[in-house]
From TrEMBL:
Protein's cellular compartments: Cell membrane
Family: Belongs to the cation transport ATPase (P-type) (TC 3.A.3) family. Type IB subfamily.
Shown residues within the full chain: 448 to 737 of 794
Highest taxon of the lineage: Bacteria
Name used for this protein in its record: Copper-exporting P-type ATPase
Organism: Alicyclobacillus acidocaldarius subsp. acidocaldarius (strain ATCC 27009 / DSM 446 / BCRC 14685 / JCM 5260 / KCTC 1825 / NBRC 15652 / NCIMB 11725 / NRRL B-14509 / 104-IA) (Bacillus acidocaldarius)
Length: 290
């Protein structure tokens, strides 16, 4: 590879908001045949909003929100922020919570008004022997919404449905990548039903759902071991190890500092189409070299 071609390529990238952190990444990117997208904050806007609150028999919707917001007020998770914003908008008085502990990939727990409470996903609640109303969750999840469950001790208080919209350019990006012969995957900590609904909207057929934050990197490794040349695209703290494990780590410029740090390429505008642009830039650069 001639240094001049690499320099020109890097410069062209920078002009269109594609920050390439070293010539070697530009040289490798043209060989990528597999792109793995994180869901929340990468394919979706990452600004989820509460759409429905369901409460169990004999429980007030307000009490579901009170417990959920009390815990989530101490969380930085986008789902937590959505719950707190909704509770505030609806004039819910948020009680204080103590001994709050967040459990990555599952949810958050703590004491509210002297009771042990938790807010989080199905897997976690099933493990804790909380009985789940599957019909309610099915309705939320098949619409692509994330169901956030709320419990006091082993008793389910209710569920909060949260929707996060696809970025407007996702469908076009996925189609172009597939036309380029690239295999497209979605990876998420969210449950299978929600993930499948979002993937379908995006045009993605390969889905890895219910992946714990600590397991994302191993999933990328396994694709590499199967002989794929993998670009991982993500935005969160959770994604950083997977970005590092990929042949090419691509971070959304809108993402967390850790993700930006470990990435090989940063898409400053945070739009998914930057992935197509980056791979094309690499191909063009390599053509000039040979
Ligand atoms: P993603 O991989 O889509 O970015 P995360 O790994 O951050 O998702 O979280 C995975 C799942 O864990 C979420 O979909 C949610 O069900 C649950 N979860 C994690 N943190 C919280 C929280 N603070 N409140 C409610 N649910 C949570
Ligand atoms: Mg994310």
């Amino acid at each position: 590879a001639t240094p001049t071609a690499i320099m020109v390529g890097t410069g062209l990238g920078a002009e269109s908001g594609i920050l390439v952190k070293g010539g070697e990444h530009l040289e490798l990117a043209h060989r990528v045949n597999t792109v793995v997208f994180d869901k929340t904050g990468t394919l979706t806007t990452g600004k989820p909003v509460v759409t429905d609150v369901w409460s169990a028999d004999g429980v007030e919707q307000d009490d579901v929100l009170k417990v959920a917001a009390a815990l989530e007020a101490q969380s930085e998770h986008p789902l937590g922020r959505a719950v707190v914003a909704y509770a505030k908008e609806h004039g819910v008085e948020i009680p204080s919570a103590s001994e709050v502990q967040s459990v990555p990939g599952y949810g958050i727990r703590g004491m509210v008004k002297g009771a042990r409470t938790r807010v989080g996903n199905r897997t976690w609640f099933v493990d804790a022997n909380v009985t789940i109303p599957d019909d309610v969750l099915a309705a939320f999840e098949s619409a692509g919404k994330t169901a956030v469950l709320v419990a006091q001790d082993e008793r389910l208080l209710g569920a909060i449905a949260i929707a996060d919209t696809l970025k407007s350019d996702v469908q076009g990006t996925v189609k172009e990548l597939q036309t380029m012969g690239i295999e497209v995957w979605m990876i998420t900590g969210d449950g299978a039903r929600t993930a499948e609904a979002i993937a379908k909207l995006a045009g993605i057929t390969n889905v890895m759902a219910g992946v714990l934050p600590a397991e994302k990197a191993a999933k990328v490794e396994s694709l590499r071991h199967a002989g794929r040349v993998v670009a991982m695209v993500g935005d969160g703290i959770n994604d950083a190890p997977a970005l590092a494990a990929a042949d090419i780590g691509i971070a959304m410029g809108t993402g967390t500092d850790v993700a930006l740090e470990v990435a090989d390429i940063v898409l400053m505008h945070g739009q998914t189409h930057g992935v197509v642009d980056a791979l094309r830039l690499s191909k063009a650069t390599m053509r000039k070299i040979r």
